[in-house]
Amino acid sequence: MKYALLIYDKPGSHEALEAQEREAVYGEYFALSEDSRCLGGAQLGPVEAATTVEVKDGRTLTTDGPFADTKEVFGGYYVFDVADIDEALELAARIPSARLGGKVEVRPLVEQPS
Amino acid sequence: MLSSLVGFLGDFDLAEEATAEAFAIAAERWERQGAPTNPVGWLVATARNRAIDRIRRERTLAEKTRLLELPEAAVDDFDETVIKDERLELIFACCHPALATEAQVALTLRALGGLSTEEIARAFLVSEETMKRRLTRAKLKIKQAGIPFAVPADHLLPDRLAAVLAVVYLIFNEGYGGRAELAAEAIRLAGVLAELMPDEPEVHGLLALMLLHDARRHARFSGEELVLLGQQDRSLWDAAQIAAGREQLEQALALRGRGPYVFQAAIASLQTQAPIDWGEIASLYARLAELTGSPVVELNRAVAVAETGHTEQALEIVESLDLPEYRYLYSTRGELLRRLGRRDEARAAFERALALTVSEPEKRFLTRRIAEL
Fold first, then answer.
1. What ipTM, to 2 d.p.?
2. What does the domain layout of chain B look like in residue ranges?
3. A87 lies in a domain?
4. How many Cβ contacts (< 8 angstroms) between chains A and B?
5. What is the Cα–Cα distance from B107 to B92, expressed in whole angstroms?
6. Measured between alpha carbons, how far is B114 from B106 in angstroms, rounded to an integer?
7. What is the pLDDT of residues B169-207, one digit of tens each?
8. Which of B96, B146, B152 comes nearest A1 by C-beta?
9. Is A113 a domain residue?
10. Partner-chain contact A108 B153, CB within 8 Å
């Protein structure tokens, strides 16, 4: 089963780390992306670079900033192909953001017919 | 039989319907032709085949295509001993942390307790519609989120087993206040777990704890009025259940159990003896408090300490606790102050407890306490 692991960061949590610790943490993110079960993923740019688009009555509305004005910021994601949710949850728990005040949402992908 | 099918199919509803269909066919056919030599095997094979037919007809998710690869189960292949008991897998799925606690409780009662939706709704004081929705959503989550029907891997097992035991204990406590059929159901579930996981001391510990508490249920009330442990008529205690509880505790201790349920069971067991060794109970509570860090456990320790005669020390413990909305903190404080002759302070504490109490028998008990001051 394929799962999306959606990473919500506590703002500033990674920047607050000592340089050496930060290196180690980035190493962990990299290791997860190198896992054989990883189908893909990406780190999103800073929230200051975000733009939100909405189409109402045929008109495109463009706003500066991210969609959600929440404390946590959506920072990136992975897609993993695993046997069941327990494997996905274990991978999610290894994502550094989860222990640095952030949260990881684990959601199954809708299977596309091949 | 249901649990074995659910494990095989990974789908509750399908398993339930297939089972029902198999029984219906059996009822009709066996009346005409007589029962087969291996009725259980026949039922399971028939149910599986009905389910496979159904899946083929519906042509659903790719995930289910693996079932289409399986050969049609031949009736003769099924030996009763081959049918794997998958109740453990079922209970771990029902109590998976990806499900909300109330969903875990409802599913466990439905799938393992065999309670009807209506019975579960009544037990938890919600409408049948609400409970039906809760169960449907939970079953859907299991399917969609890929919650496995499996006993968790070794490194996950301690936490997952703790969650299962917590659900069973929750069910017991719902029944503790008067809904006796829930308490009995919880004890039965723990019994099943003890059978399926005989080497887990906490399972025996929880079973022991519930048996010992439940054994005292007839002595807990005199008419409508609350009777405290010290005043209970011991002839109303269920001696057989106490013996069974002590036996389970022995098993847990033989397995070197040192977990919270084992400690609580040991305390409950000591409380069934005469005279009660409150000193020993106090030290068990101290060990339990270290394990759990729970202020409620510390409160219970204070009570035990008071029973050994050290009222001042007990009061100090109570005053150090942070339980601002816990009625038993105030009722305990009131009792300790009363014993120390500090009547005005005792009255204030009892009145605070009264304000926080909802149960009528408890309210009457506290009112009497205040009047006696």
1. 0.85
2. 2-82, 85-178, 198-268, 277-323, 329-373
3. yes
4. 31
5. 11
6. 11
7. 999 987 655 567 888 889 999 999 999 899 999 999 999
8. B146
9. no
10. no
